[in-house]
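Exercise 4. Each item below gives a protein and its sequence. For each, produce the structure-token representation.

Item: AttH domain-containing protein (Deinococcus aluminii).
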Amino acid sequence: MRLLKAGLTAFVSASLLSSCLPAPQSFDPARLPDPADLSSRNAATEWYYVSGYLPESGLAFHWAQFKVNYKGLPYHAGHVAVADLRTGKLKFFENESQRARFGFPPLRVEQGDWRLVQEGNVYRLQAGPLNLTLTPLRGPVVHPPGYSGTPELGRMYYQSLTRLEVGGTVTLPGGETREARGLAWLDHQWGDQQPGREARWDWFGLHLSDGSDLMLYRVRDPAGKVVQVAASRVGTDGAAREVPGLTLTPGRVWRSPSGREYVLDWTVSAPDLKLTLEAVRDEQELLAKNTSVAYWEGPVRGQGTLEGQAITAEGMGEFVGGVLTRAEGGRFGPSGR
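Answer:
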């Protein structure tokens, strides 16, 4: 999943001064990570991310944990969003605690009382309204070419667990606690990019009806120029393979209450793949004050053909809309959009 900062000096506290980090490691595209090594890294920007569209439960959710190395000082920010697809209500939570802990193996990602903890082959996610058990149905992968972004905009190494079985409960915006069942997607990315300000993207993590998983993204520069398009498909054998010759064609545009525009309908094309995707609902814009980034995060679905066979797709999309202004509550953004 993918956002972040632009000037964290105002958020450096006395407690942070005692926990300085060494200079972040440089990005080296020739040294890709081990897919199974999900440990936290010393990078300029890092995040862990879990999202799921659970149509049988009538909900969608996402959790993200960010760590930024700013001039040797760590800054942590967390997000959780829950959409009740039966009532149309959306709730967004932000975590600003600087009490954070990371460990591996087993994986442990904690910020305050939010945590993603590995217990054997199972991951427990407890964050605000989320009380979930995540069981991987296939192993971790590194998406070809191993990272997103460009040398000019910054690059992020890219690992995923693309298919996890979801159990547990989610507390919905109206207060109801609902059983959660379906599939989720876990991402881990780190590198030298400053997302939101210097890089924006359109991303999909999709579960296909043939049992494979499809990752799609476009990276854009601040002017909106597309500088990278990439895709990988994780087959039932667990291997991630590049999808060559991919095009992502924007369709319907939705204008949010903040005035930003997001493409919510897409056409995906590759030599053996034809797919149309649409947002399940429009009103999924999130204005994240603790990272000063506006983005659309929500459930998507689609249909088409893969290798000549009919398929359907369900999953999540994320489309970055830029930096928040100070009038919107952004802490690092410009005075005007």
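Check: The CA atoms of residues 84 and 172 lie 6 Å apart.
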